[in-house]
Structures are given as C-alpha cells and as structure tokens.
C-alpha cells in the first residue's frame, strides 16, 4: 500500500461503516415514522409503510448494540478524532486549517452525545404512543431533537471530512485494503496479549484517561453511562423501543 496516502485502521473502518449505515437508516426510517404519525411540522405526501415503526426500532436496536464498541474505540484508539484540550481555543482561528480540524472534532464529539440521547429517548418511548396520537411525551420530543442534531452533525461531519482530507481521506475510509500489521488474523493474538498484560494495560488506560482534559472525561462518562442507561432503564419502566 502507498504509505503516503491517508490510512484508517481496519477496525475503525468496520465500526464506522456499520455505524454509518445504521445511523442513516435510522434517520430515514425515523423521518418516515414522523411522516406517518405526526406531521405537525410539515410532511411529504408519500405512501405509508405499515411496518415502518418496527423497521426503525430494529435499526435502533442494532445501533445500540454496536454503540458501546464504537464509543470505547472512539474515546481511546480514535481519541484524536474527538475534541482536544485546545479545540475550543482553536475555533477562534476562523478559516485556518486548524479551525476546520477543530470543528470536525467538535462535531464528531457532538454526534456521540446525540447518539446517546437518541438511543436513551428511543428506548424510553412506548410503541403505542404515536399510533394512538399521543405526541406530547417528553421522551418523544427528546427523540425528535436527537434526530435533528444527528442530521446536522452527519452533514457537517461529511463536509468537514471532505474539507480536511479531501477525496483521499474519503477513499481511505471506504477502502477495504489494509496493511499486514492491521490484518484481522492478528486481532486475536493482539487481544490475548493485551489481556495477558492486563494490569499494565489498565494502568496505561488510567494514565491516558487522566491525561485528557476534564471536559472529555465528563463527556466520556456521560456517553458510556448513557449507553448503559439505554440498556437498563427500559427493564424497570417496561417501555418499548421507538
């Protein structure tokens, strides 16, 4: 492979690709759910898809299952793509390359927060609310807000990726080529080595966690706690997925 070209780790491309497909699917199906049952803020006159609520809920559940893995990867191996201690300060340098990079990192971080809001609010909704016209529940409004934020963040994420890295970066994300050291055949051995040296790796993870800014610590805790909440709370409140 050309070492001068942008390269994305294979595991990142897999998690990013599947997450992207599920997010786009959930955004589209979420609009169709709104377009079928709500329509208060405008609608498109298209044929009704009867099982659209089930389709949206299924996509959301698969995304929720994948989200913990993507979030953990993002906050650790992929942390350079998220908000950095100097990112807010760099946003004052409007128009400069560092401004675009910092904006992209900010948007990536906001997408994780919006994703947590989406899965938590969706899990706390009941399937019968929308079909019977109960549209004023707090969780439904929270879900709509998360849907809007995800649309905005996704659009900016794509635009910023094109702006920061251009076509080579976009192609590197879509490419299935990988370097020998990044081969899936090595994943098991690397994971086993990590567990064999668990104490040292845990100490390193703690040191890295403490090294980042307080804001990112708080965001990581919110995201991971939110994901756990999305799994656990519906068990106590007997709610269904959106």
Automatic annotation (TrEMBL):
Main location: membrane
Spans traversing the lipid bilayer: 12-35, 55-77, 98-120, 140-160, 218-237
A Pfam family this chain is assigned to: Ni_hydr_CYTB
Membrane topology: Multi-pass membrane protein
Domain Cytochrome b561 bacterial/Ni-hydrogenase: 8-164
GO molecular function annotations of the record: electron transfer activity
Taxonomy, superkingdom: Bacteria
Protein name as annotated: Cytochrome b/b6 domain-containing protein
Species the sequence originates in: Dolichospermum flos-aquae CCAP 1403/13F
């Amino acid at each position: 492979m050309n070492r001068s070209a942008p390269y994305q780790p294979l595991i990142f491309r897999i998690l990013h690709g599947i997450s992207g497909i599920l997010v786009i699917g959930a955004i589209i199906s979420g609009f169709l759910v709104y377009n079928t049952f709500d329509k208060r803020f405008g609608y498109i006159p298209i044929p009704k898809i009867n099982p659209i609520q089930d389709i949206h809920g299924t996509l959301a559940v698969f995304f929720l299952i994948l989200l913990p893995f993507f979030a953990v990867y993002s906050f650790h191996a992929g942390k350079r793509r998220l908000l950095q201690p100097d990112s807010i300060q760099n946003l004052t340098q409007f128009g400069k390359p560092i401004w675009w990079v910092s904006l992209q990192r900010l948007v990536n971080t906001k997408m994780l927060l919006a994703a947590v809001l989406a899965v938590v609010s969706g899990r706390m909704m009941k399937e019968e609310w929308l079909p019977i016209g109960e549209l004023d529940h707090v969780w439904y409004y929270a879900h709509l807000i998360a849907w809007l934020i995800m649309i905005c963040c996704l659009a900016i994420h794509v635009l910023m990726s094109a702006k920061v890295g251009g076509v080579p970066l976009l192609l590197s994300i879509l490419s299935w080529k990988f370097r020998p050291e990044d081969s899936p055949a090595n994943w098991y051995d690397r994971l086993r080595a990590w567990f064999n040296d668990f104490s040292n790796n845990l100490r390193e993870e703690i040191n890295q966690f403490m090294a980042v800014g307080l804001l990112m610590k708080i965001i990581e805790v919110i995201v991971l706690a939110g994901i756990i909440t999305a799994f656990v709370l519906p068990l106590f409140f007997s709610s269904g997925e959106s």
